[in-house]
Amino acid sequence: MPVPQEFTRDYVEANSPADALLYTDFLNSGEPWKSMHANNPWLQAPDPSKPLEFGGDHYWDTTVGRKHPYWSQYTLPRLTKDINQLRADLREWGFCLIEDGLSGEQCRRFLERLVDQAEGERAAGVAYDTPTGQIINTLVNKGRCFSACIEQDPEGVQAGPVIEQIMNETLGQGWISHSFLAIGADPGCHPQGLHIDQAPLLPWMTSEAPALFNTMYIPQDVDEVNGGTLVIPGSHRVLMDAGSGGKIGQLPPTINLEAPAGTIMLFDGRLLHGTGANRSDKRRYVAVSSTVKPWMRSQENWVMSVSPEVLARASDKLKHRMGLQAVTYGATVEGFGLGGRGQVGDVTGDLVPFREAYDAGEYERVGELSAGSPESDLRKVYTVHAALERLRVARESGQEGKVGKSGGKRHVSSFP
Ligand SMILES: [Fe+2]
């Protein structure tokens, strides 16, 4: 029987004129970026093949808020430990500054480890260089001081409880880590183009709340000289007002972030920002921990990248934040985890046994089977079966809601 004509490529193409296509008005509109650049030509990113220019109307050629001719008239976010001030600054300006978010000792440890790691990656030939500087990726594997930040453990970040509270309010309980990386910007490096971090994840502008939220660790003083992060204060509200596919008019100017070492900047995933241009004679580090809704695909594929050593000592919180728990119908493994509640410690979506079995070389996936398959296939200890059995035992013993310590090998071999 020939394939029906309506299913042929030629027929489908002939019947897909531009005016018949679904949703493309919105999806291909290029907004709000098209109008934003048309109405603000000073937002044009520099040519990475040429040395960076100063002078002229460029978004990277600016100063800190208190020295800025436009912004000095406004009360922009200042350093504070007061959670209510932090909330107010986030609403109004899209960012806030936690004073002494890292203690002196935490800050020193954080910076030392970053510098050491960056040099180590250079020496090992795995330095990740970009026009903006050296990126040190996947910090969770590179020091306890970093994994403690993902958990907001006060041992690693003294303002942890404040950050966690604000993130729970902003993203809802059960959020996960998107990535945690540091940027070492050298003198002469180019600034990033101004962007919002949630844009690559969603085509819609979420007007009610952000879908991504950032925690930026500042382990050394930043200002207009060493390229403190560029932001347009309050730009999240301009984008919210424009809405999905909406147009942007003239924007206010950028400022460089000014903050002393130990500050933590929280910022909305809809705030226009970018790495600044470093005009000092020294490298400048900041580290950004991004977080997203638990059903979103994360920048870092943690399930692959987190090391077995880190996993072995990870708390329930850390495992959850690295996406090792399925939620509702996101990130299930062979169907396991469907209906997971997405809360820290919920065994219903616990994917760690799969990862442990994989690390041990013992992950048995269910492949092609029939009732007549060889006994060796029908009686195999499939990892998904073992995980379901473990869940059943947990439910019967009233331990559901608690992730137990498993160990892949022990787990698989204990299945009858
Ligand atoms: Fe960004």
What features would you describe in this structure?
The structure is a single chain. With 416 residues, this protein is of the alpha+beta class. The protein has two domains: 228 residues, Jelly Rolls (Sandwich), CATH 2.60.120.620; 104 residues, no CATH class. Helix content is 29%, strand content 13%. The protein has 15 helices and 13 strands. The strands form three sheets. It has an eight-stranded mixed β-sheet. The chain has a three-stranded antiparallel β-sheet with strand order 8-7-10, with no helix packed on it. A two-stranded antiparallel ribbon has the order 12-13. The longest helix has 20 residues. The protein is globular and about 80 Å long. The structure holds fe (ii) ion (FE2). Fe (ii) ion binds next to loops.
The rounded distance between the terminal residues' Cα atoms is 49 Å
CATH class annotation of the largest domain? Mainly Beta
For the report, how would you describe the main beta sheet?
Answer: 8 strands, mixed
Average pLDDT figure: 93
By CATH's scheme, which homologous superfamily of the largest domain applies? q2cbj1_9rhob like domain
Radius of gyration, taken over Cα atoms and rounded to an integer in Å: 25 Å
Number of spatially distinct domains: 2
Structural class: alpha+beta
Write the layout of secondary structure elements.
Layout lengths: L8 H6 L9 H4 L5 H7 L39 E2 L2 H11 L1 E4 L5 H20 L4 E3 L2 E4 L7 H7 L9 H12 L4 E10 L26 E7 L11 E2 L3 H8 L12 E2 L6 E6 L4 E2 L9 E9 L9 H4 L2 H5 L3 H6 L5 E2 L11 E2 L10 H8 L15 H4 L4 H14 L11 H6 L3
Parallel strand pairs: 1-2
Antiparallel strand pairs: 2-9, 3-4, 4-5, 5-11, 6-9, 6-11, 7-8, 7-10, 12-13
Bound molecules: fe (ii) ion (FE2).
